[in-house]
């Protein structure tokens, strides 16, 4: 077998003294000063340990044949590295070597070292000018230097659908023990520790000890107080030095703690390892009981992505390095780079090299394929050494429909109540219910999205179905279903009907919980049918052309009941496809991805209380990584 350390150095040697100048389109980086990730030729702590272990074995084998050479036994296994003074001193020595290199190379010039990486890779992240980066690249100790790049998040009945109760759970002794003794590390947007999916109280009275091989800790901050961790959530840290150095970190929105201000991290953690039998209650309706796929596993969170800007590779590498030191068994990354890294190969970068070392350390690394499909070579998970998961459909859906007064039924989505059975209600377009049309100016061009209560005549809308436009602004988060529902309630509307703007193309519209009758029509063609019926039913004054009667009526069927079919599994259109691109020029690599697909659309999972109106569950597009 080829020595792993030699192979790793060969990988970096391919880029020896290379200098990555492509900033990946990160407009927030100053043109002359930026964050760089520097990888050195010298082996990391893990690889030094492995070399020592191999030397121990060699000398021991020689001793068996009469050789009396003495040897020093390594003091610990890598899984317990952070507990040992021996390894802490080695970490300190490597960090001091990094500082010495920077001082000698830059000779009194200003710079900011953000991280020292010592366990999986030997290197550091540093904030320097492009000229200083060029100077560092010429040092003989340096194997590779690249500009830090941005990354992003990729986002009940599912265990039965996957056959777990009669399959894997049985082999593990039932859901009560499925995942026991395993720690899953999540590199994501953090976690909301208050969610019942992460309650550490064991009502079964079974012992639930934290695995001895795990040595992680929990940060304590005002928004992640003492007691947030327990026997389920056993570790929590956050990493944001690259973002802070760039001046884009907002502590009030992004939370300088492991707390999840986005929701994605809470969601993925609950899908993989959330408690079994947690009630999925949304908008007052109980959709059943939810369970993580490995409900007995422990969770350790390494927050490196944030709501307002995503994340950066330097912070992610620091998170991976720490997770490996802590002794996680599985590393879950539902994140992908924003674009293909430059260089000789997509996976020859510090992030993928760190994951390679993690695999060598015995950690099972799993990554989302990405949501950049359906084109060939749209894959955003590049490494052949990690397990890549794509998104497939579920055999469960929550269908909704609206029946028009002309008996035409239009399908839609929305986890919403139905209107009163046997009764149809008048429909009123938001654009026809304005208090004063003449006062609408350019900034109010999106008034049809029903985001501003003060724009509408309550007397016109009261007791009727309000028709609102669903535009690209909803996709971008500039307008929200939550706000439109609040406006409709304040106007005493009976329900809400969202039609699709024709410019919204190629986006998955998932069932959205609504606490009043409502529906989203995801098809632009079906939306045209709705609007044609509505407009043809208006009665206008022959002279003024003002509306004198709204003639269109409809009933909403509701979408709170699940329907099941045999159409699954089917690859979701947005799931990234292979083969892997070899480089940024789209040459083919001899790597086929993803390794498998799993249910990844409209999965019930926990959501952060800081990121949604619901304090319980939210069904969104996300990657199922277990």
Radius of gyration: 28 Å
Distance between the termini: 30 Å
Helix content: 10-25%
**What spatial form do the alpha-carbon principal axes imply?**
elongated
Counted beta strands: 31
Structural class: alpha/beta
Overall mean pLDDT stands at: 77
Q: Provide the number of structural domains.
A: 3
CATH class of the largest domain: Alpha Beta
Unreliable parts: 1-30, 68-77, 156-176, 613-626
Spatial strand sequence of the major β-sheet: 8-11-7-14-16-17-29
CATH superfamily of the largest domain: Peptidase S8/S53 domain
Can you count the helices? Answer: 15
Write the CATH fold name of the largest domain: Rossmann fold
CATH architecture of the largest domain: 3-Layer(aba) Sandwich
**Largest sheet, if any?**
7 strands, parallel
Provide the β-strand percentage band: 15-25%
Description:
With 626 residues, the chain is α/β, with parallel strands linked by helices. The chain folds into three domains: 4-148, Peptidase S8 propeptide/proteinase inhibitor I9 (Alpha-Beta Plaits, 2-Layer Sandwich); 151-200 and 210-395 and 605-620, 3-Layer(aba) Sandwich (Rossmann fold); 399-561, Glucose Oxidase, domain 1. Helix content is 23%, strand content 23%. The chain contains 15 helices and 31 strands. A seven-stranded parallel beta sheet has the order 8-11-7-14-16-17-29, sandwiched between helices. A seven-stranded mixed beta sheet has the order 20-19-27-21-22-23-24, sandwiched between helices. The chain has a five-stranded mixed beta sheet with strand order 1-5-2-4-3, sandwiched between helices. A hairpin with a 5-residue loop joins strand 3 and strand 4. Helix 10 packs parallel to helix 11 (350-360). The radius of gyration is 28 Å and the shape is elongated. The two termini are 30 Å apart. 48% of the residues are buried. Mean pLDDT is 77; it is low at 1-30, 68-77, 156-176 and 613-626.
